[in-house]
From TrEMBL:
Keywords for this protein: ATP-binding, Hydrolase, Nucleotide-binding, Transport
Coiled-coil region(s): none
The organism of origin for this protein: Paenibacillus nuruki
Keyword Membrane among record annotations: no
Residue ranges of domain ABC transporter in the record: 7-231
Enzyme Commission (EC) number: 3.6.3.-
GO molecular function, one term: ATP hydrolysis activity
Entry GO CC: membrane protein complex; plasma membrane
Keyword Protease part of the UniProt annotation: no
Membrane spanning residue stretches: none
Gene3D superfamilies: P-loop containing nucleotide triphosphate hydrolases (3.40.50.300)
Gene of this entry: lolD
Enzyme superclass (EC): hydrolase
PANTHER family, sorted: ABC TRANSPORTER ABCH.1, IMPORT ATP-BINDING PROTEIN
The protein's name in its UniProt record: Macrolide export ATP-binding/permease protein MacB
Length: 231
């Protein structure tokens, strides 16, 4: 396991221009995430957690400060390089699953591997293994509308896993699920962390956040708490 942090954010600031003035969203954010951690970032609507998620996920770049992901200074990179970093370094798990309805489960899982340029047989092998890992090997040729919400989220988790990225970034992963299914998905996420995957989970739900090993709270664009839960 690497001794260097997976994520190092130093004095990150970000805002948007409105009526000729910059409205601050993130203010002097500094945080470190080590390999193998399971971190929840929690905050109410408007707290800045979604903007912070976009920064961590390389979907946007901060106005100032430093973001180093797996040894790379993200803020000083081109758009093409940023897309490559997203594809290779981050596995995204979204609340709304973001599956393409006309593709089967295995074809959805393959998509990031196609963009990475992997050969056909290697893509199929990795996608099949990822679906087996989440317990959906027998449903790999089902389309999303033939799967339950929980199964769709498991396909999304398999898609995130298939490329073997150093970071899994989960945005409200249980938000579209019923309570029972949400518990199953959270158990799967915890199991993945126990297997060594680094996970950052974005949520507004304290019960969900408290299942992580570490909880970071954001309020009005400022980190207000960083605590570790007992093992």
């Amino acid at each position: 396991m690497s001794q260097e942090p997976l994520i190092q954010i130093n004095h990150m600031n970000h805002g948007y221009m409105m009526a000729g003035q910059r409205m601050p969203i993130l203010q002097d954010i500094s945080m470190t995430v080590n390999h193998g951690e399971f971190v929840a970032i929690i905050g109410p609507s408007g707290s800045g957690k979604s903007t912070l998620m976009n920064m961590i996920g390389c979907l946007d770049l901060p106005n100032s400060g430093e973001y180093i992901l797996d040894g790379q200074n993200v803020r000083k990179t081109s758009d093409n390089r940023l897309a490559k970093i997203r594809n290779e370094k981050i596995g995204f798990i979204f609340q709304s699953f973001n599956l393409l309805p006309k593709l089967s489960a295995i074809e959805n899982v393959e998509l990031p591997l196609i963009y990475r340029g992997l050969p056909y047989r290697e893509r199929k092998k990795r996608a099949s293994q990822a679906l087996e890992q989440v317990g959906l090997h027998e449903r790999m040729y089902h389309r999303p509308n033939q799967l339950s919400g929980g199964q769709q989220q498991r396909v999304a988790i398999a898609r995130a896993l298939a490329g073997d990225p150093p970071l899994l970034l989960a945005d409200e992963p249980t938000g579209a699920l019923d309570t029972h299914t949400g518990k199953e998905v959270m158990q799967m996420i915890k199991t993945l962390n126990q297997q060594g995957h680094t996970i950052i989970l974005i949520t507004h739900d304290l019960d969900i956040a408290d299942q992580a090993k570490r909880v970071i709270r954001i309020q009005n664009g400022v980190l207000t708490e960083d605590r570790r839960n007992p093992e």
